[in-house]
Design goal:
- This protein is α/β, with parallel strands linked by helices.
- It has two domains: about 5-340, TIM Barrel (Alpha-Beta Barrel); about 345-379, no CATH class.
- About 30% of the residues lie in helices and about 20% in strands.
- The chain is built from eleven helices and 16 strands.
- The protein has helices at about 30-35, 95-100, 100-110, 125-140, 165, 170-180, 200-210, 250-265, 280-290, 295-300, 305-325; strands at about 5-10, 10-15, 15-20, 40-45, 45-50, 60-65, 70-75, 80-85, 115-120, 145-150, 185-190, 210-215, 220, 245, 270-275, 290-295.
- Strand 3 (about 15-20), helix 1 and strand 4 (about 40-45) form a beta-alpha-beta unit.
- Helix 6 (about 170-180) runs parallel beside helix 7 (about 200-210) and helix 8 runs parallel beside helix 9.
- It binds flavin mononucleotide.
- Flavin mononucleotide (FMN) binds next to strand 8 and helix 10.
């Protein structure tokens, strides 16, 4: 019998699919619609205490690729497939007060659904660390099931916020520790993919007490330049600033970041985000070892909260489990992490003939050189 439920960081989910922190999860009506549609959990749009003023004009656009040429553009047209989302939206501009009462109301109305509060503060001094604690306590008093620390927003001016925290191992650890001092609920950390070796920031966050790592947030990027007008396709008075790329284009990039972490910490918990529109893509994250998957861009394009996306995710996961019941797979736990060990160093990949290869060195007398394995056991 297919069982879609799962336990992640000690919390029981009806299914392992969540809406990630973004516009689909900023209003009470959207979150309620998302739960009614079938999402197992929702991570709220990031809540903060500092002033937030968004840019003039649109904050998100969708880049599409022509199906019969190499053209990429945000311009609306026929015969184009989604490539990515691009946004420069800041965190929620609703004050904390607006979330109080709203979160508890939602949780009361949907006791079996999982509500996670995404939070962000600065990290430059004790007052800022205290702000993380204020946000944590306020949200947990509302009855949310977990908090997700935003160390990943790519367009922050402040050097002590967002991805600037996620790029600093010490801050990852210090902020997580400050939150853990007051948290009675699981603490998830959402890391930026924009670092050289994400396992270092993951390790630092775990050292601070993180119960799970979530990745990826959007990748730092610019909108494209229109060849006719010579203007950026997204700009305000001709000016642009680095924003974040999400959607299908980041799926392989984000899987690579996730594989680095799940291999380095096979006994830890991870939530996969980035480019998921259907079950096949969520499956990739589960096979690498993730216990939940989160969706943003695909949901934004489907009636704002993804009713058709979640319907298909549930149906296709059920069909997948039924198809594989003969292998003894009845729930996510039965296939989670099955392909984690298939990601290996380059020298472990078989060469066309039996010639010896020592990872680019003349012989095997070098540290860091991994010896080839002859066979893999398929499961
Ligand atoms: C318009 C927009 C706003 C976002 N706002 C937040 C945010 O407030 N906090 C956060 O942690 N991530 C935010 N994200 C990132 C998403 O949660 C997600 O990590 C990212 O879009 C990758 O997932 P996707 O490929 O499914 O879109 C935002 C993304 C978009 C497109």
């Amino acid at each position: 019998m297919a069982d879609l439920s799962t336990v992640f960081t000690g919390i029981r989910f009806e299914n392992p699919f969540l809406l990630s922190s973004a516009p689909p999860t900023e209003s009470e009506s959207n979150i309620r619609r998302a739960f009614d549609a079938g999402w197992g959990g929702v991570v709220t749009k990031t809540i903060g205490l500092h002033p937030v003023v968004n840019v003039k004009g649109p904050k998100t656009k969708f880049l599409r690729a022509d199906t019969d040429s190499y053209r990429l553009s945000t311009k609306k047209r026929a015969n184009a497939a989604l490539h990515s989302s691009w946004n420069w939206e800041l965190i929620s501009d609703k004050p904390l007060d607006a979330w109080i009462g709203m979160l508890s109301g939602i949780k009361k109305a949907y006791p079996t659904k999982i509500l996670v509060a995404s939070i962000m503060a600065g990290s430059g001094n004790d007052k800022e660390l205290h702000n993380w604690q204020t946000l944590t306590k306020a949200c947990q008093d509302e009855g949310v099931d977990a908090v997700e620390l935003n160390f990943s927003c790519p367009h922050m001016d402040r050097i002590d916020m967002g991805s600037n925290v996620g790029k600093d191992k010490v801050l990852c650890s210090v902020v997580t520790q400050a939150v853990k001092e007051v948290a009675k609920i699981p603490v998830w950390v959402k890391l930026t993919p924009a670092t050289a070796n994400i396992t270092e920031e993951a390790e630092a966050s775990f050292r601070g007490g993180a119960d799970a790592i979530c990745s990826s947030n959007t990748f730092p990027s610019l909108p494209l330049i229109d060849p006719e007008t010579l203007e950026f396709e997204m700009n305000v008075d001709g000016y642009v600033s680095s924003g974040g790329l999400g959607g299908p284009a980041i799926l392989p990039l984000s899987l690579a970041k996730m594989a680095q972490m799940t291999k380095a910490f096979p006994d830890r918990e991870f939530s996969g985000i980035g480019g998921i529109s259907n079950f096949d893509q969520a499956l990739g994250y589960y096979l690498l070892g993730c216990g939940t998957a989160q969706v943003c861009t695909a949901a934004m394009l489907d009636h704002a909260v993804g009713p058709n996306v979640i319907k298909a995710l549930l149906a296709d996961m059920t069909a997948f489990l039924e198809r594989n019941a003969s292998r003894g797979w009845h729930s996510l736990a039965d296939f989670r992490g099955l392909r984690r060990d298939r990601v290996v160093s380059h020298s472990l990949i078989k060469r066309p003939d039996e010639r010896e290869y020592h990872g680019g060195y003349k012989d095997e007398e070098h540290e860091g050189y991994a010896k080839p394995k002859s066979t893999l056991v398929s499961s």
